[in-house]
Design goal:
The structure holds two protein chains of two kinds. Chain A is built from four helices and no strands. By secondary structure, chain A is mainly alpha-helical. Chain A has one domain: 3 helical TM bundles of succinate and fumarate reductases (Up-down Bundle). Chain A is elongated, with a radius of gyration of 17 Å. Chain A starts with a helix and ends in a 5-residue tail after the last helix. In chain B, the strands form two sheets. Chain B has a five-stranded mixed sheet with strand order 2-1-5-3-4. Chain B has a two-stranded antiparallel ribbon with strand order 6-7. Chain B starts with a strand and ends with a helix. Chain B has two domains: about 100 residues, Ubiquitin-like (UB roll) (Roll); about 130 residues, Alpha-helical ferredoxin (Fumarate Reductase Iron-sulfur Protein, Chain B, domain 2). Classes of the chains: A mainly alpha, B alpha+beta. Chains A and B meet through helix 1 and helix 3 of A and helix 8 and helix 10 of B.
Amino acid sequence: MSSARVETKLWVWQRLSAAVLALCVIVHLAVIVMAVQGGLSAAEIIGRVSGNYVWLAFYSVFVLAVSLHAPIGVRTILKESTDLSPKLIHAIMALLCLVILAMGFRAVFGLFNAGGM
Amino acid sequence: MKNTIKVKVWRGNEEGRFEEFEVPRQPSQTVLDVVTYIQRNIDPTLSYRFACRVGVCGSCAMTVNGRPRWTCRTHVDKVAQDGTLEVSPLRNLTVVKDLACDMTDFFDKQNRAEGKFHPTKTRNDDFAYILPDDKQRKQAALGIECIGCGVCYSACDIVEWNKDYLGPAALNRAWTLINDVRDGGNKERLAAVAGDAGCHACHSQQGCVEHCPKHISPTRSIAGLKRATAMAALKGEI
């Protein structure tokens, strides 16, 4: 793929993921604000998200959007402020994406399956 | 108004120092007037560039008290700080001598961004009829008054970070041509401006908009290029 195509597609993915994240962050913060009204507890959080497929889908989308958005942004920062080779930068992007996916889905499925507590 | 003004002027090239001069004040005096006074009356070895003196040619841009400006239309009254001026060459360009920069990179980038007209008709064809309220004509009109002074290029932090970045003026020029229905070079142009030193490198900080003496918004033009390249990429055209 040409540089023009790569750069343009990365830009499109970053903008699309940003739009998704804007919505996700608003919902996430709104729920936090509403939840703490009655006092925040682990049991209350687990009670809300555990076994709930809607929250599973919501936070899965959230994690996927972060896993796209953050590595593309980090790539730009590394390109502008370091002399790292493009190959190394792409390797860092891929690693960061995998780390976000692994940590994110570990948390999402951890809470989804935490009903036994 | 004091009778004189203290002016610190950059002397040398990339390596150099500021030299201080005392210049008589005049009503409605411009920064270019001050520099010209120094060259004609105090130190004839001072190098700087100008041509029209009336804000048309784009030759006389310099850094004045830390900001890039067109010096022929910049009044001393408006920019002097504590009765002093500091005049240095434009940032992000190689200094030839004193206040004169090598503009080669700046103009080469206009070519690299396909900032030239690709005709689709010959002299035997009829004129193109474009109404003044045509949507694309209006878009082109917003960026067409660029005088190529290099002020936006000097104000841009992305140019400083990435020497290959095409810069606000070249991308703005490309956007005006994208909106020129007589032009046939859009495919090449979109590919040229979408590379890793092209429109997607812009952070929309708007230093160019803040400093452009013609009140053009290169950021708006670059945003247009981002949308146009995105559409072209989705259609598989680039």
